[in-house]
Amino acid sequence: MKKRFSRRDFLRLSSGIVASGALATTTRRARASGKPRIVILGFDGMEPSIVDHMLEKGELPHLQGVRAQGAYQRLRSTLPPQSPVAWSSFATCKEPGNHGIFDFLRRDLRSYMPMPGVGTTQHPQFNPDGTVSRPAQSRNFRQGEPFWVVADRRGIRSKLIHIPFSYPADSLSVGKMLCGEGVPDIRGFTNTFFSLSDSFTSEQLAENISGGVRLPLRFDNDVALVDIAGAPDSRQGPGYYVKVPMEIRIDRTAHTAKITVQGKTFEVKVGGWSDWIEWEFTVTPKFSAKAISRVYAEQIGDSVQLYMSSLQFHPKNPYVTFSEPAGYSAELADRYGLYKTLGWAYDTHALRQNALTEGAFLEDTRRTEDWLERLTLDEMEGDDFDMLIAVWTSTDRVAHMFWRYRDPKHPLYSAEGAKEYWRALEDTYQRMDTIVGHVKERLRDDDLLFVMSDHGFHSFRKGFNVNTWLIRNGYLTVKGQSDAASAFTDKEFLQGFDWSKSRAYSLGLGSIYINQKGREIGGIVSPDEADKLIAEIRAKLLEMVDPETGDKVFSNIYTKKDFGGRVVPDTPDIELGYADGYQSTKVAAKGGVGEHILEPNTDKWSGEHGASDVAISPGILFANRPLVPNVSIRDIGVTALTVFGAEIPQDFQGKPILA
Ligand SMILES: [Zn+2]
Questions:
Q1: Residues of the chain with pLDDT > 70: what percent?
Q2: By Cβ atoms counted within 10 A, which residue in 88, 122, 322, 631 is the most buried?
Q3: Are 410 and 404 within 8 A, CB to CB?
Q4: Average pLDDT over residues 466-473
């Protein structure tokens, strides 16, 4: 131990220069016989059945190599098998009942209003003179300590790159962390893209689109000026954003545009991306918020269509710190130039709203994956870490968006589209396999490698309107409507219901709550009756059959005790376990009512897993060592701590899995 520390001290003294071959070799040998390092690569939502198939065909040679050295098996996900829930279990080595993250959304018991389920961002507050009285801050609702924080206390040096839903960054004494999924845009949202065009119809402009905004371009002599609303000004009330003008000067014959923002001009041509545009939103005379974005030119000719990414945190002057140490995000900008900082790194919203083409989406995806690979490999170079975790989420996003081309039974399947894109997901998996290969080249003999995904994937062919089903079965009542067979409301966010006559309601991707007396403000079901009601609804749902196909809609229905921990007011009373092909509709997820109980899914968001039965939605786990059977996502951190000889905290629920 002592020897190792003196070597580290020496490295520090030589300002981290490990380029000297002799030094690197000595270090390598010394470490090889000493403490192994652990590298964990996460590929969000990588589906085992596809991996199996590709392994069989020899399309994942590097993963095959890891398997040959050790193991490849299914990794049990969480109830429900969704990223925020599963990655929180990964971090805290706990079941959802104990870390308290159950879904993207939860509800306010005093108003029934949906609230973020994972975390929130509060914008800065100001003194009367415009100075900041409280800076912007983000909060994660997850309870429990991540295993890398436990390791950090033992002096184990971690490098943590883009672990989903581990934002804000943890405070570490010897580790480094760059946050990924969870980091919002400067407006405080997951994503706000800008779609700019001179040919939007008035209906298109009036429409509220999810994850973005449409802005009209009015050209005068081929020059248009448009105001971009960026940082919020909390003093003006909610929904008020400081605007900065953007000038767009187009050349319709050359198909190019010059975009000028705050005195700097960026060029973009059709089918291409601009450099990073830097923004400064002056919120008060004493405070301005910095952001970055990029523009893609879809069309510049008779008509013009441009896409601009979300206004993302500036890595050198972030709205809220998203790295540890705080200066790490800026250090990376010095090293690589400006880079994508938005947690929702692949703009599925823009693709869904036709603001970005499939091709542009995939190109942006590859570029982002590449950057993350470069960062990961560079961070592996120095002898300055004991554990490295890096996660790619493109595997999940490409599956969500391109499943329609791999499932001939999907309503949006087309042979033509399939010809071009059916391998989009396989290509992504192969790209990840290449990364595994590059990482393996940098491993030492006794280093431990895990490659994992947090859940699997399914086709999403049909949507189930949970609240509509609850209404038709007499559990939920629409305000002012007594006929359960026809009652309907187009109000979202649980706002159309008569709570004095409602016993159950649904919000989120797969949760049903009992309107319980003493818990919900308008609750009518006593806690004693609640369990009986839960059992009754569960039994009915388990019998639910799709009249068109005769298939069961649910492969299991879970209840509050299945979350593996404490039952708290946020715990869903019933958690749906959809069979392959089925999910809650987007309307249901937002606490609304759809017209039909079952409807075809005509959204490009065509693959899902969010409320799939956990039993049929495992992730993958590869390791370069043999493993015990039946491993769960909560076991990995416990295994890492065990390898490092650290004490496992009492409240960790996982087990070590090395055979
Ligand atoms: Zn997903």
A1: 95
A2: 88
A3: yes
A4: 98
CA distance 60 to 66: 10
Radius of gyration, alpha carbons of the chain? 25
Cβ atoms of residues 506 and 513 within 8 Å: yes
For residue 274, give Cα distances in angstroms to 92, 258, 277, 298, 374: 40, 10, 8, 12, 21
Distance between CA atoms of 16 and 181, rounded to whole angstroms?
30
Is the distance from CB of 556 to CB of 613 less than 8 angstroms?
A: yes
Quick check: 290 and 276 in contact, CB under 8 A? no
- The 10s digit of each residue's pLDDT in 84-140 is 999 999 999 999 999 999 999 999 999 999 999 999 999 999 999 999 999 999 999
What does the pLDDT look like over 240-255, one tens digit per residue? Answer: 999 999 999 999 999 9
Q: Read off the pLDDT of residues 508-527 as tens digits, 9 standing for 90 and up.
A: 999 999 999 999 999 999 99
Distance 84 CA to ligand 1 centre (A): 9
Ligand 1: centre distance to CA 545 (Å):
25
Tell me the pLDDT tens digit for each residue of 535-562: 999 999 999 999 999 999 999 999 999 9
Q: Tokens representing 250? A: 């187009």
User: For residue 45, how far is its CA from the centre of ligand 1 (angstroms)?
Assistant: 6
Q: For residues 157 and 142, is the Cβ–Cβ distance under 8 A?
A: no
Q: Tally Cβ neighbours within 10 Å of residue 344.
A: 21
User: pLDDT tens for residues 376-435?
Assistant: 999 999 889 999 999 999 999 999 999 999 999 999 999 999 999 999 999 999 999 999
The domain defined by 37-101+143-182+343-457+617-643 folds into Alkaline Phosphatase, subunit A (3.40.720)
Give the pLDDT band of residue 1 (cuts 50, 70, 90): very low
d(CA 295, CA 567): 46
Strand partners, 137: 122
- What's the gap in Å between 395 CA and the centre of ligand 1? 9
- Residue 100 CA, ligand 1 centroid: distance in Å: 19
For residue 254, which amino acid is it?
A
Confirm if 400 and 608 have CB atoms less than 8 A apart.
yes
Q: Answer whether 107's CB lies under 8 Å from 114's CB.
A: yes
CA dist list (Å): 390 to 98, 375, 387: 25, 9, 10
CA distance 349 to 192: 9
Q: How far is the CA of 522 from the centre of ligand 1 (A)?
A: 33
Domain ranges of the chain: 37-101+143-182+343-457+617-643, 193-313, 461-611
CB neighbours (10 Å) of residue 14?
12
Ligand 1 centre to CA of 609 (Å) is: 6
DSSP secondary structure code for residue 122 in this structure: E
What are the strands, taking DSSP E only, across 416-573?
448-452, 458-464, 504-507, 511-514, 554-559
* H-state helical runs in 596-634: none
Q: Which two tokens stand for residue 243?
A: 């605007």
Q: How far is the CA of 404 from the centre of ligand 1 (A)?
A: 15
Angle at 108 between CA 106 and CA 112, to 5 degrees: 100
pLDDT of residue 34: 56
- Ligand 1 centroid to Cα of residue 31, in Å, is 38
| Distance between Cα 46 and ligand 1 center (Å) | 10
Element (H, E) at 73: strand 71-76
